[in-house]
Write a structure and sequence with these properties.
about 325 residues, alpha/beta, 4-stranded mixed beta sheet, about 15% strand, binds iron/sulfur cluster
Length: about 325
């Protein structure tokens, strides 16, 4: 993920001091149960150390922690850098970089910035609940649009539709993409694994609305959870819905579990799906990635299903995540995941 360079970065244990120095705001009303930790970030645009085959090498993440609370979220361990937990803390204590828009405006000033594509949603969801209150993602979009700076967004939330006006304005000046992460349309799996997210059918509807508005929007099927959402029937349902919504691309990514997240998720599997314990132990017990053959099989399946559904779209398997400039990150690109 993007490692934050806080103004207090020169203090001892700066990551831990963040929480001490943050302005704490307790959520009320629709934000009941959340606590916002408002901080001033020194830098917002992050440069990936090894972008590999990705289309971008720069990212922006204005929130840290995510109330969508997906069980498999790869960003969970990043909360531990702050001295917070990767469980409930990650879902309820949301770090908000309140000066993000001003910092992005300064960092992307023409004399300082080369105009490279910037990806949002590579760590936590830029349209998580906090965005309803802080509107930082909207502000960043406005700045990037004014700069005619290409950008992409990955989200699970139709809240992005609120910003169709600024997205459309930006798309008139530069390359804009908004992709949705839809791991499954299986109602039971969705409820169990993504408790704080909007129904995946609503996300598919948002894909259609954005494309109708002239904003290119695709679907990332991910993460596909072995034994839970990987059947041809389940994947076929997402592909068919994506194609019908006019998705400009359909990609897929199979679950991967970096060390920081592995124990958390495997414990969850033990409690909720003991019938899968052995399989997950075999695949992920000592490795972050499922067997390559399985990843290839699913990519081929998505490609086949997409063409069968009549999709005139590109099918891109997701590559492994890049390293970031700062501590080894549990980054897994999806999302916002
Ligand atoms: S996977 Fe995305 S939406 Fe889910 S908790 Fe993580 S960042 Fe939020």
């Amino acid at each position: 993920m993007s490692q934050l360079r806080w103004q207090i970065a020169d203090l001892p244990n700066p990551q831990l001091r963040i929480i001490d120095q943050a302005q704490h705001r307790v959520g009320a009303g629709r934000y009941q149960g959340l606590e916002f930790l408002e901080v001033e970030a020194k830098r917002i645009v992050n440069t990936l150390k090894q972008p590999g085959g990705l289309r971008f090498s720069h990212t922006i993440n204005v929130y840290r922690g995510c109330s969508r609370a997906c069980t498999y979220c790869f960003a969970r361990p990043t909360h531990e850098y702050l001295g917070l937990g990767l469980g409930t803390d990650f879902e309820t204590k949301i770090v908000v970089k309140v000066n993000a828009v001003d910092v992005v405006r300064a960092e992307t000033a023409p004399h300082r910035w080369g105009g490279q594509l910037i990806a949002m949603g590579t760590n936590t969801d830029p349209y998580q609940a906090a965005e309803g209150r802080y509107r930082l993602t909207r502000g960043v979009i406005e700045v990037l649009g004014q700069r005619a700076n290409p950008f992409s967004i990955l989200t699970k939330s139709p809240l992005v539709l609120r910003d169709v006006d600024v997205l459309t304005a930006a798309a008139a000046r530069t390359q804009v993409r908004v992709d949705f992460s839809v791991g499954t349309l299986d109602e039971a799996v969705w409820r169990e694994t993504e408790p704080g997210t909007t129904h995946p059918r609503k996300r598919i509807e948002a894909v259609a609305r954005l494309n109708r508005a002239g904003i290119r929007s695709g679907v990332l099927i991910g993460p596909i959870l072995p034994g839970m959402s990987d059947s041809p029937r389940q994947i076929g349902a997402v592909v068919a819905a994506a194609v019908e919504a006019g998705a400009v691309s359909v990609g897929c990514v199979l679950l991967h579990l970096k060390p920081g997240l592995r124990r958390h998720f495997l414990d969850w599997i033990d409690r909720h799906h003991p019938e899968l314990t052995e399989r997950y132990g075999e695949w992920y017990g000592t490795r972050s990635y499922a067997p390559t053959a399985e990843q290839r099989r699913l990519s081929a399946l998505v490609r086949r299903l997409t063409h069968a559904a009549g999709g005139d779209v590109s099918v891109r398997p997701r590559r492994r995540p890049p390293a970031t400039r700062t501590p080894p990150s549990p980054r897994q690109l999806t999302l916002g995941e």
